[in-house]
Structures are given as C-alpha cells and as structure tokens.
Amino acid sequence: MDFAKLLADVNNFVWGPVMLALLVGTGIFLTIRLKFLPWRNLSYAVRMIFRRKDKHAGDISPFQSLMTALSATVGTGNIVGVATAMVLGGPGALVWMWISAAFGLSTKYGESVLAVKYRETNSVGEMAGGPMYAMKNGIHNKYMGRGLAALFAFFVVVSSFGIGNMTQANSISAALFTGFSVPTWLTGGIIALLALSVLLRGIRSIGKVSSVVVPAMALFYFLSAMVVIVVNFDAVPAGIAEMFRMAFSFDSVAGGIGGGIVASMLTSMRWGVARGVFSNEAGLGSAPIAAAAARTDHASRQGYVNMTGTFFDTMIICMLTGLVIASSGMLGTTDPVTGKMVSGAQLTILAFSTVFGDYAKLIVSIALSLFAFSTILGWEYYGEKALEYLVRRRPVIMGYRVLFSLITFVGATTTLEVVWNFSDTMNGLMAIPNLICLLWLSGDIAEECFDFQKTVVEKEKHGEDIDCQTEVGSIENF
C-alpha cells in the first residue's frame, strides 16, 4: 500500500467525526458542569485581559500570555480554513464554527485552569506548565498520569515542527511567490533569521513580540475586512440568512451567495466544527502551555483570560472572513483553468478584490504572512516546553530553538505532503490525552471555578479589587 495514502487515511480518521464529537462533547460537558459560567463571564474575562498585577509568580503578563496563545492559534486557518469550510460545507459551516467555539470557551477555560494550578518552576526559574504537568501532578494514579503526560508531550514536539512550523513557513513563501514572484529561498531565509532572533531569547522575547504583532495584525485584518463588509453591506443580511438556513437544512443548495454549493446539515457541521477546532485549538491542549507562563494570582483568572482566545480567534476573526466571502458574491466561483471551485486563500483574495481590486492580493498576503509567522513563534514555545518535560536538559532546549528556526527554511522551500499529514495526525492525537485529563480532573476545574466566582468575580463586578493570594490563599503547586 502507498505510504502517503495510508498516512492520509489515518489522518482523516484521526480528524474524523469521532474526534470532533469528543472535542465538542467535552466542551458541552464542561459548560454544563460549570453552570455556563464561562459564557456568563465572557465580558468579565475580556476586561481581565488588561488588568495589571505584575507582582505575582510567572514569566509574562496575562496579556502577553494570551497574545502568545493567540499567536499560535490565529493563523492560516482564519484565512484559508474558513474559505475551505464554506466551499466544502456551504455557508452554514460558519454557523457550526461559532457553535463549536461557544462550547470551546469552556474547554479552553478548563485546560488553562489546570495548566496554572499544576505548573512548576524549572531549573532556570521559568514557569513550566500545560496538560503534561496537570496529568503528572493532578492524576493520582501516577502510571496513568505520567503515561498520558509523556504521550501528550511527544505529540506536541512532533506537531511543532509540522503544523507549527513548516506548514506556516510554506504558506508564507507560497503566498509571496504566487502573488509577487518572491523566491522561496529568500522568504525562507528571512523567516529563519527573524524566528532565530526572537526564539533564542525565550518566552519573554516571544511574549513581547507577540503582544505587538498579534494586536497589530488583528487590527489590520479587522479594518480591511470591515471595509469590504461595509461596501458590500447590501448582501450581508441575505448572506447571514443563508448561513443559518444551510446550517440546519438536511439537504440544501446555497442560494445567491453560495453559487450553487450543495451541502447538508451534517456536511456543514462536519466542516464547520473541524475548521473551527483547527483554528482555535480548544481541546488540543496547546494554548494552556502559554497560560502557565502568566503572572497571575489565581488559576481561574488566567483561565478566563486565555478563554477569550477562542472568542477572538473564531467568533471574531473567522466570522469576519466568512462575512467578507459571503457578501462578496464570490463563493462558488469556478476556476476557468482547473474547472474546480475556487477555495482557500484564492477565494479570500477574490472576495477582497471586489472592493480593493489588485490590492486584495497584497492585503491577504500581508495578513497571511503575519498570521503564519506569529504561529511559528507560539508553537516553538509549545514544542520547547513539551521537550523540556521529556528531557529537562538546557543544552537540548537551546538546540531545539536553533533547529526549530532553521527548519522554517525547509518548510518555506519544500513541499512535503507526507510531513503535513503526519504532523497533522500528531496534532489531532494531542487531543486524546488532553481530553482524558480534562474529564478526569473536571472536579478540580469546577472547584476552582466556583470558588473564584464566589470570592472574586462577584466582588469585582461590584467594583472591588481583589487579590486572590490574600482573599483565596495560595494554590497548591502554584
């Protein structure tokens, strides 16, 4: 049997309906168990992003922690993934992206709470945390806990080189070569040098760069998308109506905005949930690694802060892309050369071109490059902390930083489909030990949530400024 085909089949199975049902199901379970508090406290969580309390243990501020997590999640999925989902699953896929993200708020909250609660301090005084430490320190059966932790850490390290590195570098070089004939070797060299200059200095450098790059790129993309939506606003109400109609129709053909795309409710659900999870990574266990580095006074506070990443990534940025495409009238356009429907970045460029003309290529290329480069930075930190859990030798960690930076050149200059599928499979397999941990320690999550709600949230909503280390007390392993 052809190895590449076998790997593709395995990847399709890993990211198939069973995995998606487990990811969303865990989010539904946690949402109910937490009495919908992640939903009810969303506005409170957004306010907490900008709360400055720098005296507590940690490496970076809560804002920098969130930006580091967002740098890894806001990537090509927000541009390419949304367009692909709307072609394969119809406009209704966007609604299912929203629904999965709503329950993903609770998942992201829970895994971030555990990451901070069970984090440790490494040999150089930095915080080390994430699902692997929650598994090791939180699951009392040490064989189960450490076994799951080792599996998770291994999957993260492997994924970091593929999903978090080479695919992102390849997206940048492909966009610049296709749009502006920039040689891939030149793009690869620049990416490698930029990555090396940031990554060699560790999480504090990543946090500082992410806290500038992520808001800037998000604002740039937000303003560009809003211009398209406003200019094409006459088509927006019909586009939104078509999204909801197709999201809940058992056998439906898209109307005017869909260009004749046929998609059932199950098809919309499949592609919407899949691309939503791929974009915001709720349940995969990656973002909590960044949450564990934050200076915070309570695990639940940082859980709320990092939870907003799912909101910004999927409910805002992905929705903007979806509305741009839906209002442009370009969905369902056929490529005259291949005879296939235009999808991915090409579809997004066509949508932007209805307002910006030839400049659309520049706008999407800039956004895609910034999104992808920030993902490289965030995923290096994830891979580094996972490797640190497995090895715990500083020379190895420094070597990983250099190797990770150099590998971006390989990704930018080479198309390796087998590597993509393999790393994508490892990315999906991360979710299995993480979901087991979330369900196993859901009692810990609920305890932290309800305690924080009673002693902090209700008081802070009434104007009091609560320091949890005096009000609540220090947290075990904190």
UniProtKB/TrEMBL annotation:
Pfam families: Na_Ala_symp. It is a multi-pass membrane protein. Keywords: Cell membrane, Membrane, Symport, Transmembrane, Transmembrane helix, Transport. GO terms for molecular function: amino acid:sodium symporter activity. It is found in: Cell membrane. The keyword Cell cycle does not apply. The keyword DNA repair does not apply. GO terms for cellular component: plasma membrane. Its main location: membrane. It comes from the Bacteria. The chain crosses the membrane at residues 12-32, 143-163, 175-200, 212-231, 243-266, 311-331, 362-382, 402-422. NCBIfam families: agcS. Belongs to the alanine or glycine:cation symporter (AGCS) (TC 2.A.25) family. This is Sodium:alanine symporter family protein.
